[in-house]
Amino acid sequence: MNIKDKSLVDVFKNKVDNSQKLVIVPHNNPDGDALGAALGLSNILRNMGKEAAVISPNEFPEFLNWMHGVNEVIIYDKNVKKSKKLIADSDLVIFVDFNALSRIKLMGQVFEKDTTYRIMVDHHPFPEANTADLQISVPEASSTCELLFHLLCEAGMRDDVSKEAAECIYAGIMTDTGSLSYNSSRPETYLIVADLLRMGIDKDRIHQMIFHNNSFDRMRLLGHALGTKMQRIEDNKAAFIALSQAELKQFNFKPGDTEGFVNQALWIEGVKLSALFTEKKDLVKISFRSRAGFPANTFSETYFNGGGHFNAAGGESRLSLDETVERFKVVLKEFCDANGF
Ligand code: 5GP
Ligand code: MN
Hints:
By secondary structure, the chain is an alpha/beta fold. The chain is 42% helix and 17% strand. The strands form two sheets. It has a six-stranded parallel beta sheet with strand order 3-2-1-4-5-6, sandwiched between helices. It has a six-stranded mixed beta sheet with strand order 7-8-9-10-12-11. The longest helix has 19 residues, at 321-339. The structure holds guanosine-5'-monophosphate and manganese (II) ion. The site of manganese (II) ion has 6 residues, from loops.
C-alpha cells in the first residue's frame, strides 16, 4: 500500500499538529472499520492532548460497544444541535471510511455549508470530488483502519498509538477482511497486524467481543434467515434473503444483528452474488456480496443508488420490500445477460 503523493501525509500531519478541537465522522450505519478508525484516531488525538469528538450519523452496533471511548460517541440523529455546535467550534474535521457526503445521510447537509478544513481517510474506490479538502484515498488498503495506521506511521505518529487505539484499529482490519479471509492478500496487512500485536492488544478478547458475543435472538434470526427466507435465483448464480420489519421485531432486532448474514449465502457453491434486503422504516437497505468477477459496486450503483467495493457493496430502495425483491430479480437478469454472467 502506498499513499502515492507524500505531500498528502505532510498536510495531514501539519493540519493535525495545528488543531486543538477535532471532530471525527464515520459513515452512516458504522461498521467495525468505520467506528474502529474513528475511535482509534480519537484515542490517539486525546493522548496528544487534543479534544476529539466522534460524531456518528446514527447508532452503531452493540458488538462494538467495548471499544475504548465508545461511550462518548455522539449520535448525530439524536443530538443534532450539540453535533452542529461541535462541528462549528472545531478546527479540523476528519471523515473516515467513506468518500461521498451522501454516505452520512442527513448529516451531510451540515458539511455542505460548513467551512472547517476537512480531511477524508478512506479505502473505497471512486471518491467523490470535494468530499473533503484533503482526500487520502487508497482503495488497495484492506480497511480504513489499515490505511489509518499506515498514515500515522508515515506521519511519524506511531508512538502516539496507544494499546486502546491499536485494539480499535485491529478490529477494523478484522471486520473488513472477514478475519483476514478476503481483501487481505498483501503482506503489509500482516506486518501491521504484527505491529498491533506488539503493542499488546488482546487479539482473542477482541474476536470474542465481536464475533462470539451474539444474543440468543440474533442466532435465531440467523437460523430463520437461512432456514426459511434464503432463496436462489438465476440458475443458482445468486441467492438472497429479505427480512421484513415484522420479522425483525419478532426476533427483537438491534442494530448490527444482521451484520454478516449476507456473507453466508455466498458460501453456496456456484453463487456469485448474494443480497440481503432489510426493511427499515422508510426504505429497504440492501447489502451485496460477490465473487468470481461480479462487480457488486457497479450493480448496486446502477440499480440501487449505492456503491462500495467490487465484492462488497450496499444500496437502498424506496419501493416496498416485495417490490424491491421483484425489481432485483428483473435487473439482475438484465445485468447478467448484458455482462455475460
Ligand atoms: P454493508 O453491506 O456492510 O452495509 O456495506 C458494504 C460496503 O458497501 C461498505 O463498504 C459500505 O461502505 C458500502 N455501502 C453500503 N451501503 C452503501 C450505500 O448505500 N451507498 C454506497 N455508496 N455505499 C454503500
Ligand atoms: Mn471499510
